[in-house]
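Subject: sequence -> structure tokens, single chain

Hey, anyone have a minute? Need the predicted structure for the following. Not urgent.
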Amino acid sequence: MAATTATPTTLGVATRVAAAGGAHSAVTLGPLLVATDASESADPAFVAARLLAERLRARVNVLAVFEPTPIYLPPPELLALPIDFDAGAIEVLRQRAGQQFRKVVGETADWPVEVYTGDPAPTV
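Reply:
Had a minute. Here:
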């Protein structure tokens, strides 16, 4: 699961401000989204996001997706799983993603880290 991106999102996209008396315009993009699996192979996406954020003066949001492991049981058996069965793993992923961006980008970056549960590709 090494697919990682640093992509400008479309939230708040394309606010064009015409310069007085000229044909130049400035474009303001919404926040950048860095999707990570918290592996070392995702580090370059954080570098790209930092550079883009500085150049575009954009905010950055970090997203990690927790893909739960399916549990297969024979039909007559019922297993009662605690409600927070995956909560520990989700929190570990959140901490790893936070540590990753602070290691690559720096301690001063204030990028929110969100963890969603689901299939990574459609969730991102």
